Backbone:
């Protein structure tokens, strides 16, 4: 079965420090990978997806098929980045997402 | 435009009671998904529709759970004879064809 693993429940970093949120997946095919974010008192929203290869709010993520990873990175964390981050996998277009358990990022001033 | 809406936002039910959760997707969105999110966990798939057709219901935990989308727009998730383990946030999402799922605010169900 497909699985997404986010090993860190909580990650605390100082403002201005680099951030890396880890995500590993298990699937033998070629999935589509996403990062969703939930800010305090807001709904879950898409942050970025691997097929677009874009940087959103300074975040990037590279799909590494060899290591089956899709880690989320930002060189300089900001306080407004504090949120819950979920890595998700989709087997094919417009099908249900498989989510990891999430990592809470706390950026300390 | 309006996003995905869900009602009620909070529901407290006594064990054994039936509940109905409503989802209004973004107008024109073909696909509609239901997820269950237990405390401290990520969302887990329950079922999904393409227009009015229920394409996959493999995630429904038991036959007490039932979902419908009769006119291909609004969807209702019904839980019969609620149990304490049904307590969770129920998320609805809709999408057009761009892979991006747009989520509603969720309904927090507490079963006493």
Residues:
């Amino acid at each position: 079965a497909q699985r997404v693993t986010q090993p860190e429940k909580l990650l605390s970093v100082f403002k201005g420090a680099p951030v890396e949120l880890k995500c590993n997946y298990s699937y033998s095919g070629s999935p589509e990978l996403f990062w969703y974010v939930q800010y305090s008192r807001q709904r879950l929203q898409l942050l970025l997806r691997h097929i677009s290869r874009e940087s959103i709010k300074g975040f990037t993520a590279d799909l590494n098929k060899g290591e089956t990873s899709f880690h989320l990175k930002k060189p300089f964390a900001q306080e407004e980045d504090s949120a819950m981050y979920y890595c998700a996998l989709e087997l094919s277009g417009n099908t249900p997402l498989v989510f990891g358990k999430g990592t809470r990022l706390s950026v300390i001033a | 435009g309006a996003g995905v809406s869900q009602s009620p936002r909070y529901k407290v039910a006594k064990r054994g009671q039936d509940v109905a959760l409503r989802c209004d997707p973004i107008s024109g969105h073909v696909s509609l998904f239901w997820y269950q999110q237990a405390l401290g966990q990520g969302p887990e798939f329950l079922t999904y529709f393409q227009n009015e057709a229920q394409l996959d219901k493999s995630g429904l935990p038991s036959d007490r759970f039932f979902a419908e989308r009769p006119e291909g727009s609004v969807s209702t998730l019904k839980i019969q004879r609620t149990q304490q383990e049904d307590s969770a946030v129920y998320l609805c999402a809709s999408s057009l064809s761009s892979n991006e799922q747009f989520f509603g605010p969720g309904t927090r169900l507490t079963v006493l």
Remarks:
- Chain B touches chain A at residues 3-4, 30-31, 33, 35, 40-45, 48, 50, 56, 59, 91, 93, 95, 97, 99-106 (CB under 8 Å).
- The CA atoms of residues 1 and 15 of chain B lie 38 Å apart.
